[in-house]
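stage 2 :: seqdesign
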């Protein structure tokens, strides 16, 4: 018998996601309306197509983004997870409502177009980063990439890159080469900001501890940091002595607390700190939220 959908549990699980997706979507819309369109910068993906329509025929990006995403969702519905599809619908609907409202206002225009492109990339990158951080999607090339991966087994990053680059180059029909180059700069800065936001909001550190007191350290990790760890056997290359390696993944605050504790109980211990970009499993990101 299929499990009934618990609306209360669904709301508790997704309410934080709703805030991040909403703010992220509004930031991306603002980047398009206030920081991209006034300078006629080229763009990539569905937003790039929407910009071409705006520059050539004066069609609001809201219409193009909504129509193209609707077509892509229908085309790739079976290849997408329900969560991915529902969040894409929400982002598309919110964008369609927010862009016309933002178009009603006038925004200051910067004389330095390079600065404008960098600023547009930063704001848009933060917005898209918040979407990715919430495991949501703005649709567009993400839909095509997801479908291509499932049906053909191709790399998502490669598909997205070639699609964005194709739209960027095709923009030559409505903008000059300088605006295309500014668009490329915008997309580059945007990609850097996306990476920065996704990592900084959930940065984790893998700590490897080589110590003569693994029991005390493991107890501190479990009792004080409310984490678990893996203890592995090892042998010192120089001394030949048996050792114990303790491996644990922590956030920044917890890693500092662990370092201070080890310094007190075993000053001769050896610690290795390594940043990790993603952690999936109990206590971190659930498997149900991975693409």
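stage 2 :: out
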């Amino acid at each position: 018998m299929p499990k009934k959908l618990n609306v209360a549990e669904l709301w508790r699980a997704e309410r934080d996601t709703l805030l991040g997706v909403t703010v992220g979507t509004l930031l991306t819309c603002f980047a398009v309306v206030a920081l991209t369109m006034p300078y006629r910068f080229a763009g990539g993906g569905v937003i790039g197509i929407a910009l071409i329509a705006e520059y050539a025929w004066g069609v609001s990006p809201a219409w193009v983004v909504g129509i193209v995403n609707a077509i892509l969702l229908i085309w790739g519905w079976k290849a997408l997870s329900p969560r991915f599809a529902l969040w894409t619908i929400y982002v598309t609907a919110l964008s369609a409502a927010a862009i016309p409202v933002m178009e009603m206002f006038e925004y200051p225009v910067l004389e330095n177009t390079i600065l404008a492109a960098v600023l547009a990339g930063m704001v848009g990158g933060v917005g898209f980063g918040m979407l990715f951080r919430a495991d949501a999607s703005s649709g567009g090339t993400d839909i095509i990439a997801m479908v291509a991966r499932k049906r053909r087994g191709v790399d998502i990053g490669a598909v997205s890159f070639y699609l964005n680059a194709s739209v960027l180059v095709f923009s030559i029909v409505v903008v000059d080469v300088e605006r295309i180059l500014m668009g490329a700069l915008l997309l580059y800065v945007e990609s850097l900001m996306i990476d920065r936001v996704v990592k900084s909001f959930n940065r984790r550190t893998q700590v490897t501890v080589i110590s003569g007191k693994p029991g005390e350290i493991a107890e501190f990790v479990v009792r004080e940091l409310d984490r678990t760890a893996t203890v592995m056997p090892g042998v010192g290359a120089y001394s030949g002595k048996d050792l114990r390696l303790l491996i644990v993944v922590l956030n920044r605050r917890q890693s500092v607390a662990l370092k201070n504790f080890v310094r007190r109980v075993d000053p001769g211990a050896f610690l290795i700190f390594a940043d990790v970009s993603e952690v999936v499993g109990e206590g971190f990101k659930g498997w149900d939220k991975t693409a």
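stage 3 :: structure notes
- Residues 1-5 have pLDDT under 50 and may be disordered.
- The radius of gyration is 24 Å.
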